[in-house]
């Protein structure tokens, strides 16, 4: 017969296992990151025609970044992109977030004509619940992954790339 003590121990092990399996996927924000962000801005861009798309440039400027910190990615408005360091200024980073282009679909009374429509692009689960003005930076320090939430990303004037006329070639 199982003793009361061993039952309690088994129950505790099961509860701890459930607790750790539920929290292992949770991302905890670092409140005091080892770097200081001077400014974070974003800029919508449009490529002139729907086929070339649209997206967001996000710019980060830091006051300092310790040598042991490696900035990784930016999460913003349901998109994620690897951060790229400015080759002329190691305290400036940029992310180019491209919105997925709309795909043409056939709409017809005859369902057979719609069979070759592409499947919708279902976005993978976005790991954070953010407002439109919030972003998250992922970074590594001493081989450990960290996340820092930026609370107020400022919008700057949109950038409209000109569309090229096909007759200009």
Shape: flat
Helix run count? 1
Oligomer: single chain
Radius of gyration: 23 Å
The computed structural class is mainly beta
What's the CATH class of the domain at 30-100 and 125-163, please? Mainly Beta
Any guess at the CATH architecture of the domain at 30-100 and 125-163? Sandwich
Number of E strands: 10
- The fraction of residues assigned to DSSP E strands is 35-45%
Helix-residue proportion? 10-25%
Mean pLDDT: 81
What would the CATH topology of the domain at 30-100 and 125-163 be?
Immunoglobulin-like
Poorly predicted runs of 5 or more residues: none
State the end-to-end distance: 88 Å
Order of helices and strands: HEEEEEEEEEE
Q: Could you please describe the fold and organization of this structure?
A:
- By secondary structure, the protein is mainly β.
- The protein has a domain of 110 residues: Immunoglobulin-like, CATH 2.60.40.
- Helix content is 12%, strand content 38%.
- The protein has 1 helix and 10 strands.
- The strands form 2 sheets. Strands 1, 2, 5, 6, 9 and 10 form a 6-stranded mixed sheet that branches.
- The model has no long low-confidence stretch (mean pLDDT 81).
């Amino acid at each position: 017969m199982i003793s009361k003590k061993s039952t309690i121990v088994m129950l505790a092990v099961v509860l701890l296992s459930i607790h750790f399996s539920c929290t292992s996927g949770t991302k905890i924000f670092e409140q005091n990151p080892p770097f200081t962000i001077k400014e974070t801005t974003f800029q919508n861009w449009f490529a002139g025609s729907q086929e070339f798309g649209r997206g967001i440039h996000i710019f980060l400027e830091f006051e300092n970044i310790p040598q042991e910190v490696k900035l990784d990615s930016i999460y913003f408005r349901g998109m994620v992109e690897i951060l790229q360091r400015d080759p002329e200024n190691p305290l400036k980073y940029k992310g180019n977030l491209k919105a997925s282009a709309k795909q043409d679909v056939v709409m017809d009374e005859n369902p057979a004509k719609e069979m070759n429509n592409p499947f919708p692009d279902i976005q993978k689960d976005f790991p954070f619940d953010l407002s439109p003005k919030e972003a998250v930076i992922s970074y590594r320090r001493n081989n450990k992954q960290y996340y820092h939430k930026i609370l107020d990303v400022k919008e700057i004037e949109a950038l409209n790339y000109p569309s090229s006329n096909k007759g200009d070639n």
